[in-house]
Amino acid sequence: MTLILGLTGGIATGKSTADHFLKQKGIPIIDADQIAHDLYQVGKPAWKEIKDQFGREYLNSDQTINRKKLGQLVFNDQNELELLNKITHPLVHEEINRQIKQEISKKSRLVILDIPLLFESHAEKMCDQVLVITLPEKMQITRLMERNNLTKEQAIARIHSQMPLSEKEVKATYVISNSGTVNDLYEKLDNLLNKIEAEV
What we know:
The protein is of the alpha/beta class. The chain has nine helices and five strands, in the order βαβααααββαααβα. The chain has a five-stranded parallel sheet with strand order 2-3-1-4-5, with helices on both faces. It is globular.
């Protein structure tokens, strides 16, 4: 049996750090961000839709999507964010399903499905269990400002464009707080893996 564990959190809560640890453990990871990145390549269906819906001003001179400019638009306008999600989510979900089937055919015991907008895109239906990496909002704002070189207002806008962490925590099977060191996070993840693997 293959157990699909959804991994999500909020922006800058430490999901990528969790990913790094899980990869080192040799656990297969299906990365929705990487899938979306691939779908954004020039000529791919999502690229064509974004060009048609948002206009050529969101393309760089080499025709690639100007992610920074598009991000500034969608993180400050809920309607534009919904339009972008409507374009990308079905295509991402299609590829995720293909990769899940692949891992099931390989008889993988545990597969991590890493989706930042897991609940927002209703992808929890694809998972057996869900892990949320969480953080107090003050700490989240500080980390995001430092990581992305944003002002406090820009960081807050990005955080508020997502479902509140408190809502995600209620919907999760497991919640890990990442308010300590990287080693603290690794230890918590290790304990959780032992618990899950004992049940699979």
